[in-house]
Amino acid sequence: MLKLGIPVLGVTDIPRAVAFWTQALDLVATAEWESETWRTLDHADGRGRALGLMHSASPAEPRPRLHLDLFTETTEEQRTEVRRLISLGARAVDWDLYPPDPDFVVLADPDGNLFCVVDLSRAPSGSNRPPT
Known about the structure:
A 4-stranded mixed beta sheet has the order 1-4-3-2, covered by helices on one side. The model has no long low-confidence stretch (mean pLDDT 93). It has helices at 14-25, 75-88, and strands at 8-11, 27-35, 38-43, 49-55, 68-72, 91-92, 104-108, 114-119. A hairpin with a 5-residue loop joins strand 7 and strand 8 (114-119). It has 132 residues and is of the alpha/beta class. Helices cover 20% and strands 33% of the residues.
C-alpha cells in the first residue's frame, strides 16, 4: 500500500535552504538520509517528517504546477508572517495571476521556489471550515 510521504523541494544550496525552512516553519534538520544532496526536516515538536530538501542543478520554475501553501488564520497574521519570511531571505514575487482581492501572497524562497502564504479567514473555503 502506498502512503503519501513528504513534499520535496529542489534547491541549489542545501545549507541555505535548511537555514531558511527550519526558521520559516519551526522545523529541525535530522540526520535521516543526510548527504551532500539531501536533508530531511522534521517537525520540531516530534510529529515526524515535514519537508525534504534535495540538491538540484535545474532552476526553479517560474510557474510551478506544484507548490507549498502556508496557512495563517487572519489577515494580520498573514502580513506578519510575510514580513518575517522576507526577513529570513524570502522575496516578494510580482505575480501577474493574482485574482481580484486575493487571499494569498506569492513569495519565493532563497532558491526561487515559489510558495503561497494563505489567509484562511479570507480563503474561498474559509467560511465553510470546521472549527479547530
